[in-house]
Amino acid sequence: MSILYLLNFRDPELREISWNVLSRSIVTFLGVLVGAAWNDVLLHYIVGSGAPASKTIAVQFCSMLGWYLLLQLVLAKVSGAIGTPPASVRDMVLDLKCWVTLLGITTGRSMKDLLGYIQQQVPRDFIHTAGMIPLAGLGLFFVFKVHEYGRMQVALADDGQVDVYELLWERYTTQTEDNATCMALAHVVVQVVRFQITGHLPPANGSVSASESDTGMRSAMLFLSSLAFVALIVVLDVAITREIRFVEWLKAISGNCVAFCLLYAILWCILDYSDARGAVGSMLLAVGVSFVSFLIMFILHFLERLDCTGPRADMEIHRMLQPLAILIGFAWKFAFDASIKAITSHEHVLPVPVMDLTIALLLALLVVPAWRLYILPVILKNEVSKTVKQITEDYGGHNGPHIFGRAQKRAQTHDGVTRPLLSTGPVEPSNGLTSEEVTPHLGLNPEEADTELKRLRQRCAELQRAVDDLRKEQVRAEEETPTKSGGVGRPMPSASAEDEDKARVGAMLLRLGLARAPP
């Protein structure tokens, strides 16, 4: 009932936040559920009981790599990087958002299981359990760089240049890499925190053992740990203002650590102060986590509306919605697992791992289409418009981002005329400027960029003078050519006509960013 109140709240901003958190929680729940069920099937049928650790790690690594490759193939197909280009930009962006979120969570769950199991194999002390975290991050970063090189080769294989669809493929794949990695690394970080609080390293999947729930003081310490991660986000945001991928990783990892700390702190409280276990305890956890998440939503919304918070602070506050979705999604996943375990303990139609995977896939097939068709377009109505506009400006304008470590070219029409990327309007001639001249080069420092811009402005000035000379020659030739009535050609164009021509040329230069607007 509280969800219905939030989804229809009188404050439009809070209503939008509620819809976003609900949408992300649904897909987080489904992604984690499918990923966990798939991992259990692999461990049951391929690894088996008593298998060496090396075999388990190899199987889980292949599982993670398989989800990651599936993610890249799906995004390449949806974005139009391979196959036929999409007919609708809006549908393409919505489909990308759908698969990025769903497969990103599933891939992150596979990474989480892999890193959690590797952490179990190191000596049980702080140095080794915490020291494997940066090594795991470097290993994943190396895997991403190898696949980035592969995507670059695929993008350049067809025509030797990177078009807008391949840029979108790279953009959304990188975004999913960051989300999945930060969720997996946050899991092992919280494992270390719980290890230091309880003295026992939790199981690889993060489940709570009986030794972790013997005092309420541990719940308070874990809650204080979540506040420490919030403080770390604030420090990083204040100390480092540049957008660096490593720093963004640290912020996202800290945000996910807040979610996991709150999740296990609430679970410890339930185990400490109630006798609820199994499905009942998991349901209490899901309800308690949902209540705490709604309370945090109100607090974040209040902070975002304060005048003392600037744009950067508002952006970081808005980013905390993703950890809230992870918090709610994992809590309801625990409740679903407990319910399935209670059912399978009495009915054995199929082996338990197969039954779990079957139920997870059926649930995904039932929920994902409805979520994509009816919830996602409403949630992302403004975001899709902004994304399409940003794509047009970034990849079609002169200040676009640079991917694959090189300057990207503008999209070309079938007749070779340069047009803005994703443009649906009429094609305008480039007035002699090629796409390579308009597109900036990656890696230029500010001095080199200014020099390049001055050169382009000089070129445009020369072209403008050439246009004026050609007009004068054309007018002179028409004046010297006799007409059928025995007179001369049309008279010299008026000053207003010349002014209009110059105004059109100047407007074009302003649109290309090669001229400054008059004060």
UniProtKB/TrEMBL annotation:
Positions with biased composition (Basic and acidic residues): 471-482
Isomerase keyword on record: no
Keyword match Transmembrane helix: yes
Alphabetical keyword list: Membrane, Transmembrane, Transmembrane helix
Signal peptide annotation: none
Membrane-spanning intervals of the chain: 21-38, 58-76, 126-144, 220-240, 252-273, 279-303, 324-345, 357-380
Region Disordered: start-end pairs: 419-443, 471-503
UniProt-recorded name of the protein: Uncharacterized protein
